[in-house]
Design brief:
The protein has 307 residues and is α+β, with helices and mostly antiparallel strands. The protein has 7 helices and 6 strands. It has 2 domains: 1-113; 137-304, Muramoyl-pentapeptide Carboxypeptidase, domain 2, CATH 3.30.1380.10. 56% of the residues lie in helices and 7% in strands. It has a 4-stranded antiparallel β-sheet.
């Protein structure tokens, strides 16, 4: 009996020890699991913080990259615009230079076809020799001549201006006719000789040019007359025709060569010279006469004389 009890107690101790060891193992496992869980949780927190930081950095980087791209686009656009503007300015300057050169070439071509004598001062200043004849002369239609007994010639390109002036005057009731036009060197010589014989050389010199100094040899000067004067030029300044010319002749390119007080010849209200609309208009607006202007300035109008 005692032996059985000892055996029972021995087995009971073993069982108790087994349960104890198992319990300790479970407690140890639970403690390890808890510690491990805390470590994992802490690691997760660290990783979460890292993710938040990386996300924030990525967001900042994205914004910075977008700003950089936008700035580069703006800079590129500005640079392109500046380059385009620069090219356009250079192109405009080049076109202007080409236009200027083209205009100069055109002017030179026009001048090559024009008579350089047309705007010279020929009243006791410049001399036209006996061989000078205008390049292009056309007969003035008989309807515009005071008499049809002689052939009257005028520079071809200026003739339409003369005809229009006379026509427009006529439309207002003013009658104008050409009394004298182109005279050759020899014609002027003969006329001056006639005047010298009739009036004497001194008197003739005051109203008639020597051969080579007459504007009539240019083919762009005319003496105009109006009915009611008995077929003579004296008294023309007292007519409505003269007043009309003073107010309107410049519109057609004509100027009075010898106004009152001029230093060349006596007052000749009937003598009008074609100098081109632009020059005649400028003289009219400035209150000047042809012989008041420097020759170099007059020459600058030659290229546009028939415009």
């Amino acid at each position: 009996m005692t032996g059985h009890m000892d055996l029972f107690n021995k087995n009971n101790r073993k069982l108790t020890i087994g349960f104890g060891l198992t319990a300790l193992a479970l407690i140890a496992a639970a403690a390890y699991g808890f510690i491990r869980l805390n470590e994992i949780s802490a690691r997760v927190d660290v990783l979460s913080a890292d993710i938040v930081e990386v996300t924030s950095d990525l967001s900042s980087t994205t914004v910075a990259l977008k700003d950089y791209v936008n700035q580069n686009d703006a800079n590129l656009s500005s640079s392109l615009n500046n380059n385009v503007n620069t090219i356009q300015r250079q192109l405009g300057s080049f076109q202007s230079q080409v236009g200027s050169i083209s205009g100069t070439v055109t002017d030179l071509q026009k001048l090559a076809t024009l008579d350089p004598e047309l705007l010279k001062k020929y009243s006791k200043v410049y001399f036209l020799n006996e061989n000078y004849v205008p390049r292009d002369l056309t007969e003035i239609p008989k309807d515009y001549q005071y008499t049809d007994n002689t052939q009257m010639l005028f520079v071809t390109q200026a003739l339409p201006h003369l005809e229009k002036m006379i026509d427009d005057a006529s439309s207002t009731g003013i009658k104008l006719y050409v009394y004298s036009a182109y005279r050759s060197f020899d014609d002027q010589k003969a006329l001056k000789g006639k005047y010298s014989m009739v009036y004497g050389a001194g008197t003739a010199n005051s109203f008639s040019a020597d051969q080579g100094y007459s504007e009539h040899q240019l083919g762009t000067a005319v003496d105009l007359i109006t009915p009611g004067l008995g077929g003579v030029l004296d008294g023309f300044d007292g007519t409505a025709a003269y007043q009309w010319l003073l107010q309107n002749a410049y519109k057609y390119g004509f100027v009075i060569s010898y106004p009152k007080g001029n230093g060349y010849y006596e007052f000749e209200p009937w003598h009008w010279r074609f100098v081109g609309v632009q020059l005649a208009t400028d003289l009219h607006n400035d209150g000047k006469y042809f012989y008041d202007v420097d020759q170099r300035t007059l020459d600058s109008y030659l290229v546009d004389i028939f415009n």
